[in-house]
Amino acid sequence: PYKDAGKSRVEYDVDLAKKIKPYNPDLIILAGWMHILSEDFLKYFDNHIINLHPALPNQFDGANAIKRAYEAFKRGEIANTGVMVHKVVPEVDKGQPLLVEEVPILESDTLDDLEERIHSVEHRLIVKGVIEFFRLSESN
Fold it and tell me: Is 35 a catalytic residue?
């Protein structure tokens, strides 16, 4: 509806932030959220947003990370991939990693095999990432 009304992504982000802000969340978790949040959204929540990303830091930022890792493996460019939980900053998938776990890619893997293995790591790592976020918050 925002696009149809001629409104920008930033206008959407600000409206979304204003709807969430009254709940005063301790943490916002992006898991499967495929919308890049603008700096205008992020400023409402003062470094209290984390993201689950199916790649290692500085590899395959943005969308389709698993497929791109699989293709890079098939070309012989990488031997494994991974999953990270990181703080969200304006630059896509560049925030401080809270947790990182490598995931092997096997010669026998199909893309579906790799996706399944990565998703099982994601399901475990996101919970640990939330715990790590609050552990670090308490020590600051």
Answer: no
